[in-house]
């Protein structure tokens, strides 16, 4: 078999380059984040951690900062808001996987490993987002109080289907924010998470046997066909509400 | 941003006294920082400064053409198991739609879409397992290529389209990986690849 295997050279080599997948960690370090943090501090960011602010929703996006330093402060505040929104979703996912593993419902060795790996990844996203928010001078939101009991009570099938749906939701949520992110560094980091959520979503939807598209927007391994559909904050927050205590 | 994409020496060049020409020079240098210094000749720099998104779209179009051809040829030359045939068909159709959309987007911005590249996939169609193995490389590379190019896109519409496509590429990658018995998401943060790295990775499969 090895004789027939086509070359996958450059990519395989790069896969081992740990440094190349640490967007967030680099971002949270000195460099760009440092200067952004200074900029945000200069513009006053205390009121920039509003949660639940929605694009085009009932609350308006953050206004210009009190010091009136204009667009840069506004966009940085917007990015912090998006980071905190993403953090909330990642908290929710990480907690769900942790509860699923604790429940002992998953027995299949492959599924246990998958749930653990996905859960660890969501936790890594939580850590990276928190670090980034703090390095930008913002305040990271607290983990939401979750309510997954009813899902867990329904057993393994419902648990896996819920995970599959929530991952589709996560991917759609990141996609919905991509065009709103001002900082190129934060965009790069968000993209590197977005595609991982999409991988989780496709794998879980495949494993629960939903096929490529299952009719409902959040069901299926490729639920929207060739072009993935974004979801805005309003729609996402509404969709996750049943899981919030 | 991605230290594989950026060239710090170029990105940090400050040009004061912003006449129009110096602004163009600086834009070209910034483009050089993204595309790699070697590509910024006096002739292309003006185009890059004015139409970076078209270049990125054409870069993406080349990859999509390559993927479309790969699945299409695989479907025609191999007798795939029913599950893999369904997957390859879904992916081929998605890649075709990406080709069409990117072609339209390039025309819409007044650019000229590149032609489909000639291809040579070597022994990839020897059997199903060889086919799936190279498919995984293409899909993982596609994800990293879009993720790497994303921050360099200036138009919000083009970025939205690229985001919508890369999510589908990531889904393909996960499904192909599962079919290969591999972990669907090998990294906690998907890596980004610069254009030159992607071109190096796909070069063995492009003819002419």
Question: Would you write up a description of this structure?
Answer:
The complex is a heterodimer of chains A (245) and B (208). Chain A is mainly alpha-helical and 245 residues long. Chain A has one domain: Ferritin, CATH 1.20.1260.10. Helices cover 60% and strands 0% of the residues of chain A. Chain A contains 9 helices and no strands. The longest helix of chain A has 33 residues. Chain B has 208 residues and is mostly helical. Chain B has a single domain, classed as Ferritin. Helices cover 66% and strands 2% of the residues of chain B. Chain B contains 7 helices and 2 strands; from the N terminus they run ααααβαααβ. A two-stranded antiparallel sheet of chain B has the order 1-2. The radius of gyration of chain B is 18 Å and the shape is globular. Chain B starts with 7 loop residues before the first helix and ends with a strand. The N terminus of chain B is likely disordered. The interface between A and B is large, with 62 and 66 residues.
